[in-house]
Amino acid sequence: MAIKDNLAHWDAEDFGTELLQITLGDLLDQRAAEMPDKEALVYNYPEFGLNLRLNFREYRDTVNQLAKGLMALGVQKGEHVAVWATNVPEWVFLELALAKIGAVIVTVNTNYRQHEIEYVLKQGDITTLFLIEEFRGNNYLQSVYNVVPELQTISDPVNETLQSEALPRLKRVVLIGNNPKPGVLLFSQVMALADQVSDEELAARQASVGVHDIAMMQYTSGTTGFPKGVMLTHFSLVNQGHVSTGRGALGEHERYVTAMPFFHIAGSLGGVIYSVYLGATLIPLIYFDPLKHLQLFHEEKGTFTFAVPTMLIAMLNHPRFAEFDLSSVRSSFTGATPVPVVVMEQVKEKMGADCSIVFGMTETTGAVTQSFHTDDFGLKAATVGLPQPHTAIKIINPETGEIVPCGQSGELCSKAFSNMVGYFNMPEKTAETIDEDGWLHSGDLAVMRPDGYINIVGRVKDMIIRGGENVYPAEIEAFLMRHPKIAEAQIIGLSDELMGEEVCAMIRRADDSLTEEELIAHCRENMARHKLPKYIRFVAAFPLTASGKVQKFVMRDQMIQELGLGNVAKLKTA
Predict the structure, then answer these.
(1) CA nearest 454: which of 500, 421, 408?
(2) What is the distance between the alpha carbons of residues 184 and 142, in angstroms, rounded to a whole number?
(3) How confident is the model at residue 458 (pLDDT cuts 50, 70, 90)?
């Protein structure tokens, strides 16, 4: 027990777990040496002509070839390389190859549109961009051409670097695919460059990489509406895999089926790194499809998955659910959004799998608390578990900063190996999140029980979580208010049985000719899919306080009543 004087303060405990001092590249090499013939990576997609099965030796060799190709291309240690793609095999190889050569992988949300990728390329000092051509009608390559038209004038992309006025740091763009396009390299061309770099040169570069070097940068939005690049190290990523899989009682026998997107911490860490750490077999979905997920469980004898509640619900409710043999499925990690008790009950009853709850944020390398696999169902349903090993947690009064008593709500703060280094090129925003004493302020409202288990009761920041994706009202409001026919916009979150929450836009028009259809089309064209408002209401005025502040809670209550969401809201806050 780490609580003293009935205050909501958990002193860090090791729980018998020692932290590791190893880089991601060395971790992969270690697994390849220990279990060279063990199946490591499987892509079972005959419908796409993709049937990839690699053991750990082949996995390492492919990653090494790509690492040498990247070095030959001129990618330097510490450079930022962005990946804008679905969960294709090349994504996995890039994550580990970039780690081997000391470069930083910058993950890009697959829902991003042109203005969002332009921001990431510029703010993130991206030198190289890997991308697929398009996804779900969103033409990634055309967006890049629009941002840097100079790209199409390059005749020899292998030897000629981009010279862009808009993005002076961007040197090259690489297409993951087989169809040549103007100005871009093909992924296969990068692989072919490997012959120009010796094994000894790669080994020397890999040896220069330190455990506390930045390995990954993930963009997450803030209340200002400007995405921030969260910097994570080899140390935090490897050890988060170490402690999370340990508490979840996972092992090398796992056949790990997951659709969590690799741009998300639950995919890049909870998928790729978990499996390498464990020596387990990773069986990714290229993108989430409930039928394909069930098929892979059945065909590949999947034992484990990491899935947000939305995914679990979609699988459980699929009309063909009963056709599949799920007897091998043993457990699931879930979180990122409130997990209804009924979902955990159905996963146990219909899939035979126990859910383990993981709670955290990108800034904490994905987690700070977690259920034990041995916790009873009631404990998992009521809390998000105990603090992880080597993690201190306190719950404070957001106004005074004082630690609150157990049982009283306040803002959850953590101090751990998993805390981010900071936000890239945003020292002021970093200081707002990590205080002078090293405590990371989550913005989440939580209650600590006397036994140390924690329950999340709300958010200090006015954030919406839709299907596991963070949606920030200020960002959408700023976007909408650039529309010439909108005078003012307010965004609220409404409870939803499937997605957890949905976005509702309350609009005061500057021009009464603006229609709902016109606004929806504008949003779809310019905004990531997970940010799109499900509900739009035009209003003459907003409810205000005496000081002139908008009362969002009044609007939320009105919409709950109008849409009949009372029961959903009660379920979510129960």
Answers:
(1) 408
(2) 12
(3) low
Question: Around 41, how many Cα atoms within 13 Å sit in the side-chain half-sphere?
Answer: 28
Strand partners of residue 256: 282, 304
Among the ranges given (162-176, 245-259, 445-459), the one the predictor scored with the smallest mean pLDDT? 445-459
User: What fold is seen in the domain 9-18+229-459?
Assistant: Rossmann fold (3.40.50)
Which residues are paired to 434 by β-bridges?
Answer: 440
With H, G, I as helix, E, B as strand and everything else as coil, classify residue 489: strand
Mapped to the 3 state alphabet, what secondary structure does 327-357 carry? Answer: CCCCEEEEECCCCCHHHHHHHHHHHCCEEEE
Q: Cβ(297)–Cβ(254) under 8 Å?
A: no
Q: Annotate 70-131 with three-state secondary structure.
A: HHHHCCCCCCEEEEECCCCHHHHHHHHHHHHCCCEEEECCCCCCHHHHHHHHHHCCEEEEEE
Q: Does residue 551 sit in helix, strand or coil?
A: coil
Model pTM score: 0.84
Cα(464)–Cα(467) distance, integer angstroms: 10
Q: Which of 109, 112, 110, 75 is nearest to 94 (CA)?
A: 75
Query: If you count DSSP H runs as helices and E runs as strands, how many of each does the chain have, helices first?
Result: 19, 29
Pull the structure tokens for residue 513: 């000719």
What separation in angstroms does the CA of 136 have from each of 139, 500, 502?
8, 23, 21
Name the one residue in this structure whose structure tokens are 């670097």: 161
Identity (one letter) of the amino acid at 219? Y
Contact status, residue 254 vs residue 303, Cβ threshold 8 Å: yes
**Which residues lie closer than 8 Å to 203 by C-beta, 6 or more apart?**
none
Please give the distance of CA 350 from its chain centroid, rounded to a whole number: 27
Total count of residues recorded for the chain: 574
Please count the CA atoms within 13 angstroms of the CA of 317 that sit on its side-chain side: 10
- Domain 9-18+229-459 and domain 24-210, same fold? Reply is yes
| CA within 13 Å, CB half, 6 | 3
* Cα 355 to Cα 377: distance, rounded to the nearest angstrom: 9
Q: Which residue has the tokens 């961009």?
A: 129
Kindly report the CATH number that applies to the domain delimited by 465-573: 3.30.300.30
- Within 13 Å of residue 307, how many CA atoms lie on the same side as its CB? 30
Joined together, the tokens standing for residue 252 give 């090398």
Structure tokens at 91: 């994504």
Closest CA to 305 of 282, 332, 285: 332
Q: How far apart are CA 485 and CA 357, in angstroms?
A: 44
Handedness of CA 363, 366, 371, 374 (dihedral sign): negative
Under DSSP, is residue 196 helix (H, G, I), strand (E, B) or coil? helix
Q: What confidence score (pLDDT) does residue 461 get? A: 60
CATH 3.40.50.980 fits domain 24-210: yes
Has residue 93 got a pLDDT over 70?
Answer: yes
Within 10 A of 561 (CB to CB), how many other CB atoms are there? 10
The residue ranges of every structural domain in the chain are 9-18+229-459, 24-210, 465-573
Please name the helix (run of DSSP H) or strand (run of DSSP E) that holds residue 283, with its range, or none: strand 281-284
Expressed in angstroms, the distance from the first to the final Cα of the chain is 27
For residue 401, the model assigns a pLDDT of 95
- H-helix or E-strand spanning residue 301: none
